Amino acid sequence: MDINKLVVGISPTKKLYLDDPYLRESRATVIVSKQEKKNVYVILDESIYHPKGGGQPTDLGLFKGDGFNITLKKVMEVRGVLVHFGKLYGRLPQAGEEIDCILDWKRRNLIMRLHTAGHVLDYALKEVYGRVVDTLGALHGPPTAFTEYQGMPPTPEQIEVIQKRANEIVEDRREVKFVYVSRDELMMAVKDAPNIDRLPKAEKYRLVVIEGVNAIPCMGTHVKNTIEIGPIDVRKVEKTEKGFKLYYAVKEF
Ligand SMILES: [Zn+2]
């Protein structure tokens, strides 16, 4: 299936997780459904599922309707359109039909906690290095979470301080919120954000602000208070071609 063809002429999906990452269920209308053997591709008018990308692994979950169930295997984003791919049980839902969407919340909540921990670690690194450490990429797990940074890896002593500072911020119960800004406002507010050089051009940017800590342009899902992250454990540091990967974990509930 060429999913690039599937999204031709389709308006961008309304991404409900941007405004409310705690939304676990919704009712949405099918725009496109296409069966391929036992699997199906579904495009909805709006979605609670974050796609694979932007440093996050795909959300999973379930679609339910009269005479069918779909267990999601992957959500992809193509030109602003979310394409949900999963295994179909029963009949194929038709365009125009309303379906129930249920999010795999256990997985998503873990991703939200890991992702927010990533922002906290960015800050802890900045403190230890005395400057912003640019990021090259990230995967806020599961199964494993890491951020790749540019430059020299931290020493074992520095790693200890990074972990300690990160956990102090968690314990500080800092509020995590988001605001939308223009590119000019963005440049004034966060010209030293660790991912600023990797941002695609856009009219509006979403800034994720951890009060008193940092503001990072980001479209991912985060918890609303750092205390929800729980203890952050820096697992290992691995040297890469341009820098290093910092692997970390949070407790699984
Ligand atoms: Zn983020």
Would you summarize the structure shown here?
This protein is α+β, with helices and mostly antiparallel strands and 253 residues long. It has helices at 3-6, 16-19, 105-129, 156-171, 183-190, and strands at residues 14-15, 25-36, 39-44, 46-47, 61-65, 68-78, 81-90, 98-103, 135-140, 145-150, 176-182, 204-210, 214-217, 232-239, 243-250.
SSE arrangement:
Blueprint: H1 3-6, E1 14-15, H2 16-19, E2 25-36, E3 39-44, E4 46-47, E5 61-65, E6 68-78, E7 81-90, E8 98-103, H3 105-129, E9 135-140, E10 145-150, H4 156-171, E11 176-182, H5 183-190, E12 204-210, E13 214-217, E14 232-239, E15 243-250
Parallel strand pairs: 1-4
Antiparallel strand pairs: 2-3, 2-8, 3-7, 5-6, 5-8, 6-7, 9-10, 10-15, 11-12, 12-13, 14-15
Helix pairs in contact: 3-4
